Amino acid sequence: MIVGVLLGAGIIFLVTRPPRGKAIILLPPPTQAPLTIYLSGGVKETGLYSLPPGSRVNDAIQAAGGLADGAIISQLNLAKLLVDGERVDVPVLATLPSPAEGTQPVNGSVSLVDINSATLEQLDTLPEIGPKTAQNILDYRRANGPFARIEDIQDVPGIGQITFDKIKDLITVGVGIP
């Protein structure tokens, strides 16, 4: 019984005594570094932008002063979260200064690029088509003759469904077929 009383008194003493040592002071969480992205294409100010973590594509476009004339916003996910070091390219409608051979005016403003007669430079104005792919189109056309349908451009090396979806509203096969 004496042992029980001593044990109980010891427990009460340990529980009620003040804690020893200094109190721990918690620091606020560190501030996250901003995201740095490169924004190009159909924006008013192309360049590097530092944005807060959690920023989205729309935030980057607003930081760049908004969309430029001819920007194709339908191909962008404006709600996509940005990643540090990412490049965001806002597609731009390919326009030519004036209708020339290899193009057909549409509604009097934008010219479609005729993939059967366009030059390398005209093909290079299309989104996702650089000089190498433009040359592939010319080589394919030379080897196989004119394209019968715009969908046939997917037979050219380097042009798949994704690229075709980006250019299908900008191309035609009308002028070059006899």
> What gross morphology would you assign?
elongated
Arrangement of strands in the largest sheet: 2-1-3
Number of strands: 6
State the name of the first-level CATH class of the largest domain.
Mainly Alpha
**Uncertain regions spanning at least 5 consecutive residues:** 96-109
Share of helical residues: 25-40%
Characterize the structure shown.
There is one protein chain. The radius of gyration is 31 Å and the shape is elongated. The chain has helices spanning 2-16, 57-63, 120-124, 131-144, 161-167; strands spanning 35-41, 47-51, 87-90, 103-106, 110-114, 171-172. The model is unreliable at 96-109 (pLDDT under 50). With 178 residues, it is an alpha/beta fold. The protein folds into two domains: 35-90, Ubiquitin-like (UB roll), CATH 3.10.20; 103-172, AF1531-like domain (DNA polymerase, domain 1, Orthogonal Bundle), CATH 1.10.150.280. The strands form two sheets. Strands 2-1-3 form a three-stranded mixed β-sheet, with helices on one face. The chain has a three-stranded mixed β-sheet with strand order 4-5-6, with no helix packed on it.
Itemize the secondary structure elements and their pairings.
Layout: H1 2-16, E1 35-41, E2 47-51, H2 57-63, E3 87-90, E4 103-106, E5 110-114, H3 120-124, H4 131-144, H5 161-167, E6 171-172
Parallel strand pairs: 1-3, 5-6
Antiparallel strand pairs: 1-2, 4-5
